[in-house]
Amino acid sequence: MNDDEMGRIGEYYTLYKLASLRIRSMKVSEHFDFDLLTVNGIRIEVKSARKTLKYKKYKNDKYSWYSWAFTNTDTKYSIIKGGIKLRRWKKVDRKCDFFVCVCMNEDYSINKCYIIPKKEIGMKCGISIGETRKGKHDKWLEKWDLLK
After folding, report:
1. What per-residue confidence (pLDDT) applies to 124?
2. Among 2, 4, 33, 68, who pairs with 95 as Cys (CB 3.0-4.6 Å)?
3. pLDDT in tens, 75-106
4. CB–CB of 146/99 below 8 Å?
5. How far apart are the C-alpha atoms of 39 and 24, rounded to whole Å?
6. What is d(CA 96, CA 37) in angstroms, rounded to the nearest whole number?
7. How far is CA 1 from the centre of its chain?
8. φ and ψ at 113, to 5 degrees?
9. pLDDT of residue 2
10. Contact (Cβ atoms closer than 8 angstroms) between residue 144 and residue 35
11. Residue 118: which of 33, 19, 3 has the closest Cα?
């Protein structure tokens, strides 16, 4: 499954979740800088990521954990340097009110969602959400009521 298909799963799940909460919303054209629009005018950018295993070596110990990484960048341009294609990324100031970060398991089932106000993310290139409940984004876990 490619990133576009995974993104569509996240968008459809978000539409389903909003409908179940009686929040009317719709998918907008690709020409907009956000994915969904509610009847109240709230602009939503949906980000989807699959759980991946991360490793870090500290002193003589190796640590591993699962996390989800969400990017907020666009490809600026590609260059070829020494036969290797490199991509340069540019930060994006999304024209949205909220980010909905859909965390998927390895089998693409939905694990959890974070509804994060744009001001919390701003112009960051991305965020990483760990599997444990100790992160700074946990206060936004399943906060669907913010979209009403």
Report:
1. 74
2. 33
3. 555 666 666 666 655 666 778 999 999 999 88
4. no
5. 6
6. 9
7. 17
8. -135, 145
9. 82
10. no
11. 33
DSSP collapsed to 3 states, the chain: CCHHHHHHHHHHHHHHHHHHCCCCEEECCCCCCCCEEECCCCEEEEEEEECEEEEEEECCEEEEEEEEEEECEEEEEEEEECCEEEEEEEECCCCCCEEEEEEECCCCCEEEEEEEEHHHHCCCCEEEEECCCCCCCHHHECCHHHHC
Sign of CA dihedral 95, 5, 52, 100: positive
Q: Where are the domains of the chain?
A: 3-147
The predicted-structure confidence for 13-32, as pLDDT tens digits, reads as follows: 999 999 999 999 999 998 89
Q: Measured between alpha carbons, how far is 40 from 1 in angstroms, rounded to an integer?
A: 33
- Residue 136 confidence class, pLDDT cut points 50, 70, 90: confident
**pLDDT tops 80 at residue 50:** yes
